[in-house]
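User: For my dataset I need records formatted as: sequence, then structure tokens, nothing else. Please produce one.
Assistant:
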Amino acid sequence: MNRPNFSAQAAGLGLRRDFAEEILRISPPVDFYEVAPENWMRFGGRLGKLFRALTERFPFVCHGLSLSLGGPSPLDEDFLRELKAFLREHQIRLYSEHLSFCGDDGLLYDLLPIPFTSDAVKYVASRIRRVQDILEQRIAIENISYYAAPGKEMEEIDFVNAVLQEADCGLLLDINNIHVNSVNHGYDAVDFLNAIPGERIVYAHIAGHYMKTVDFLIDTHGASIIDPVWTLLDTAYDRFGIFPTLLERDFNIPPLAELMGEVETIRSIQSNPKFPMLKSL
């Protein structure tokens, strides 16, 4: 499976407007950035110029929010054609989306789980193939966090793997989501990881979460990453080899220097497989 044309040891950062101008000014040691295209693709003026300046200088990938791959409404093909032009204009290395749905006629601004059924595998895989046909490129899908599994007929890992096979697409491996789901749904995170087809991993996300109780975690992307998630990333490298990995932080965004500390932790783990016990950041 092709990766987005940078080193396997690439350490990336999700771009937020809070620090976009600072990145342009100081060029921190980040190998690639990620944005949600919906947050940038229709802007001109100052923000449009800022984004253009960033993509001219740094490698970018895009991670979609609104395609609703598992939703009941037809795919928004007008949006996909606009997206295709945006990806080409800014030389975006890869496009990914969530293995989820986010509404019907309107967006719910939340990522809902697709029922883990064989019919859903065929349905969502056909939509992924259509997206790939329109964009004329292979995309990646991300394993999501979820809090209920209505209509479940198969295990989460079997559903994810069946979609990857049927759609012939890549995997954006979210390490934190595996940890969160393993706690909330009572499965072994390493067993889940071991069952992933490693050849389909194109890059990974790592993020923080909120612990409501010891057995109920909420995927917020609003906190520092904890030791078990760092350890699971190290385990993934040991299992599959090093792959590009990106830090997500969507809320409670700290100064850029603090985020760079976590980016450097990614880089340290990539450089030192079987990283020793980590201190919480």
